[in-house]
Amino acid sequence: MSQEVKYGFISDAHDDPYTAVRATSLFTGLGIDKLILNGDIDLAALSSILKQTAQSGLETFVQPGSHEQISQYTTILDKFIQKYDNFHDTTVKQKFEMEGHHLIFAPGSDSVCGGEFMLGDMLPTARYFDMIIDSESGAKRAVVPMRNCVKYLKVLNQGAKSDGIFQYFNMQDLYRLVTEPKKTILISHIPRKFNMPNAVDRAEFGVASESFNLGKSFVPKGSIFKLKNARNLVAQGVPIEIKNENVGSECLAQFIHERGITKAVNGHIHEASHRAHDVRCNNVPENQFTNELFWNSGCMDKGHCGILTVRGEEVSYQNIDLNDYK
Length: 326
Ligand SMILES: [Fe+2]
Known about the structure:
single chain, about 325 residues, Purple Acid Phosphatase, chain A, domain 2, binds fe (ii) ion
């Protein structure tokens, strides 16, 4: 019989990043075997957590979500990886074969919010220059792979402006990593797409139904707002529509379906914090082993995180609320 392995999951610490540091201390007390930092963790807090786990030797997997920027993320992580051997950067390696199970990581997000790690199926996996070209018909966006310096200079000489950089991960690259679907656990910051109201990808948010000015900033039509901000702005008469929709990734859903994966852990959707269900969106109870689980391990902004226990091809989850441990 396979040995049990307990993974502590932390993600989405925006409001008070140090809750993530508290969660790490709590996990240590609860006896986790490995730690997974699954995106949207403030970089100062990330640094504190890595210091903590460097001292304890706890094996730690780090994955960017929708907010991480390449230079800060890699600078912090490389500093620790060069010195200690208990850290893994999932932007460098996406598959880890453990005894009785495999972890596959899908780094980045399909809707970045200041972040520079993107996940999808539109571009080959690479780092890119993001560029804006002004033309008679208006401004157009262009992307140039970083390795193609000649093209970058050519586009610059044509009057384009550089508008930052980003790392793109193409989902197609993950297909070949799935060698034993029943043993595989997919870990992504964003969820796959579902179509039920209780699903891990169901979000409530605001969308600008028209362009408008907010203070000195121009807000284009289609901009996304967190629910709380959206409600405040709607009360002030700003043209924002409140939506309640399944917003998961279609290409992640296709990947999971085509490769026969039945276990996945995500964060990102704050409203779906601590939800858990099977592929048909039937509730899966806590602390019960199953071979089919789609789980939002918890939004740190709500004080939520979680532990996944893996026993061969089966897993069970435990939702943890930091407010219960004050
Ligand atoms: Fe996110």
